[in-house]
Amino acid sequence: MRLKGQFPRGLENCTSLTGLDLSVNEFHGTIPLDIEKKIPFVTSLDISFNNFSGEIPPSIANCRFLNVLKLDHNRLNGRIPQQLGQLERIKTFSVANNLLSGQVPNFVNGNIPAENYADNIRLCGGPLEECTPPRKINWKVIGYTLSAVSVMVTLACCVPWVPVGEKKKKMTTAAAIIMQMIRRKKVKKEELVDGFPMQETEISKLEKFVTRMSYIDLSIATENFSQQNIIGQGQMGTMYKATLPNGWCLAVKRLHNSQQFEQQFMSELKTLGRFRHDNLVPLLGFSIELKERLLVYKYISNGNLFDWLHSAEDKRKILEWPLRVKIAVGLARGLAWLHHSCKFHLANLNINSKSVLLDKNFEPKLSNFGRARRSLAAKTEFLESSSVKEDVYNFGIVVLEMITSKYPTSTGSSGRSLEEYVSSISTSSASCTYDAIDKCLIGKGHDDEIFQLFRIACDCVQQLPKRRPNMLLVYEMIRDIRETQVLPN
């Protein structure tokens, strides 16, 4: 339900509450320390797939009627209270995908499987690996180390004075060793800054907005990334349809070369993971394991716009003009929000008919933010930049593609492509003509609307970027056209 806020403390007024399921929402903050006073009689508590943080309060152990306790896929840290092991009725307990560490409780009744503890910082005990006892101090090793350091310092101090002009020529063995140690230490520090640990810190911040999922679970859901489950191919990766045990469907993008597309992967996470809009495809999760990079989206049932316009003749006939203009309005609305949000400005830089997905109601969902560029809202010059104007141009191309039914490029098509057509009208002094409009759209009662939208699209593909309108104006013009057409005379 996309519910937000902290744990609802008013639940204490529901004095007969025995089951509480807040899973798969956007709750944040800590679990109340006095939770046993809020829900004393609850038998099932599920707050999984949220953004709860902080430690698990030991007072949950006072909810002595608990049979089910699901805390997985949150941001909980610290240790799991050992008191939870005394819950005599517990049958299901899960804390997977958190930031927990230490020994897991020893439950008196019920065997908790190892996967219910998966993807934490470091948990041990129970079905997991045995906890490592504290290491004993090896005084002999420390003594040898101190002795070696003393010898090196002594040798360094005994180095005879060398004139400035000869310093580069002479260096004792001891001094060389010390310099080598300093260099090694410096290199290791740089590796920590530029390497994986720094990236992992950045990803951990993004986990507040996007759920980190198990690679094994996603592999099972896609039948080990079977070819039969492929629903799309792109430059960045292959898209698979994943079916969960409860019947829900997801779309999983598996990157072709994780190292090559690491920057695009992070851009997608930072953008779709943090910004939500009805005309953006929802990003639900991600997975990082070894060289594998997976992005998990909501499954959009009607595929992409390109296939509806070009791939199958029967589909093309179904996509009548009212649906096409609905797609244009929704796409313009989404781009106007990205470009003119009061908190930020963002350019997609990858808009085409293949990146426009259509849900069951043919509402467009913009995808592919691997090249996206973001700016703070205070930087107004961003709205006049080439990045934003590129989005406007590409939007015009998509609208012309819907109006003309021409292929965007000459590849795989006969006759002049849309790309060649736009190039010809951009380099000539003549304005756009209507010769290119798909004849199957004409004469069905929508001609005025088609011609008006055609003019707007031509404005968007002006050769000089500064002549192109901004997306907010484009959206308002298209919306006005649509509203005028549906109003009664």
Automatic annotation (TrEMBL):
Keywords recorded for this protein, A-Z? Glycoprotein, Leucine-rich repeat, Membrane, Repeat, Signal, Transmembrane, Transmembrane helix
Bilayer topology annotation: Single-pass type I membrane protein
Q: Where in the cell is it found?
A: Membrane
User: What are the transmembrane regions?
Assistant: 141-162
Q: Which GO terms describe its cellular component?
A: membrane
| Classification via SUPFAM superfamilies | L domain-like (SSF52058), Protein kinase-like (PK-like) (SSF56112)
Q: What is its main location?
A: membrane
Task: Kindly give the InterPro entries that the UniProt entry links to this protein.
Answer: Kinase-like_dom_sf (IPR011009), Leu-rich_rpt (IPR001611), LRR_dom_sf (IPR032675), LRR_Rcpt-Like_S/T_Kinase (IPR051824), Prot_kinase_dom (IPR000719), Ser-Thr/Tyr_kinase_cat_dom (IPR001245)
Question: Where does the record place the Protein kinase domain?
Answer: 225-487
Molecular function in Gene Ontology:
ATP binding; protein kinase activity
PANTHER family per record: LEUCINE-RICH REPEAT-CONTAINING PROTEIN DDB_G0281931-RELATED, LRR RECEPTOR-LIKE KINASE FAMILY PROTEIN
What is this protein identified as? Protein kinase domain-containing protein
**Species whose genome carries this gene:** Manihot esculenta
